[in-house]
Amino acid sequence: MANWLNVLREKNELATVLGKKIPKMLAHESLSLEQMSELYKFLESHAHSMEEIRSEMEGEDLPESYYQVAEDLDLIFTDLAASAAERLRDMRAGPTGPCTG
Q1: What global pTM score does this model have?
Q2: Where in the chain are the domains?
Q3: Per-position pLDDT tens, the chain of length 101
Q4: Which residue of 30, 42, 47, 62 could cross-link 66, Cys pair, CB 3.0 to 4.6 Å?
């Protein structure tokens, strides 16, 4: 049986740091496509990890607050991954020039 309080604390610490740093990183113009791809994979893996944690917690008799924290953390990691995916998509599309028509 996992120590869910410790697991959630560790994920919360990571989410707090990433929540501050990732938006700045995504706005950085000199980020390469390769760096952006790695950042997206990193964030997506944490989002997936939170889904697995929530799934494992479902069978446990835990305080309701644990489930709420896990859900909130899942949303944070999912939102960060989605932001990275959007930036990656934009980078792959390349710069758009003026419309001629």
Answers
A1: 0.86
A2: 4-93
A3: 579 999 999 999 999 999 999 999 999 889 999 999 999 999 999 999 999 999 999 989 999 999 999 999 999 999 999 999 999 999 999 876 445 44
A4: 62
Buried b (16+ CB within 10 A) or exposed e, 53-90: beeebeeeeeeeeebebbeebbebbbebbebbeebbee
> Cα torsion at 57, 18, 42, 70 (round to 10°)?
10
Distance separating alpha carbons of residues 16 and 14, to the nearest angstrom: 5
Please give the DSSP secondary-structure letter assigned to residue 85: H
Rounded (5°) CA angle 54-16-47: 35
